[in-house]
Amino acid sequence: MNDEVVVLRYGHRPGRDDRMTTHVGLTARALGADRVILPDNAGQSAETIRDITDRFGGPFAVEQRDDQRAFTRNWEGTVAHLTMYGERVQDVEADVRADSVDEGTPLLVVVGGEKVPFDFYEEADYNVGVTNQPHSEVAGLAVFLDRLFEGAELEREWEDADRRVIPQETGKRVVDPDEAEAERAGDGE
């Protein structure tokens, strides 16, 4: 069974999209995807995502490819293309989940960074719109993944982390994993 969820960031304009491409990758990681595929010219974003994964845990993989159209065309699994022109996420989320995660079939989630060629719309099994209004592709990806996993991704435990965030009402608290485990077991402050 291969229930892998992969996010493909189509297109990257260096200097203009650096932060957005990085946030697509970080959102994919934080909200349950297994890997992100970035364009080959998004090296700084790839390094930042790898650094965050090294520090805050994984598993999560980052790839760079220059053949994104061919990769999507040859994907053996379900393809969901996030676009404001697609079917409403609330109308197709159960079908996407049934066709991919529930069946153990890999899911490719395509997130555009520049004008997406029409063949992506044709190749996709689902063209999915989150609100059908202009907004951030990061927001669309976050909503889509949360609905796909029905909130279960929020309970995920991270492996091989150098740091763990301790949830609290105010302030920031980041500790090493051993200290976090001790607190969870009731041995901490």
UniProtKB/TrEMBL annotation:
Catalytic activity from the UniProt record: cytidine(56) in tRNA + S-adenosyl-L-methionine = 2'-O-methylcytidine(56) in tRNA + S-adenosyl-L-homocysteine + H(+)
Keywords in alphabetical order: Cytoplasm, Methyltransferase, S-adenosyl-L-methionine, Transferase, tRNA processing
Keyword Transferase set for record: yes
EC number(s) per entry: 2.1.1.206
Location (main, coarse): cytoplasm
Protein's UniProt keywords contain Isomerase: no
Residues binding S-adenosyl-L-methionine: L82, G112, G113, E114, K115, V116
Family recorded in the similarity comment: Belongs to the aTrm56 family.
Annotated NCBIfam families: PRK03958.1
PANTHER family xref list: TRNA (CYTIDINE(56)-2'-O)-METHYLTRANSFERASE
Task of the protein: Specifically catalyzes the AdoMet-dependent 2'-O-ribose methylation of cytidine at position 56 in tRNAs.
Protein name: tRNA (cytidine(56)-2'-O)-methyltransferase
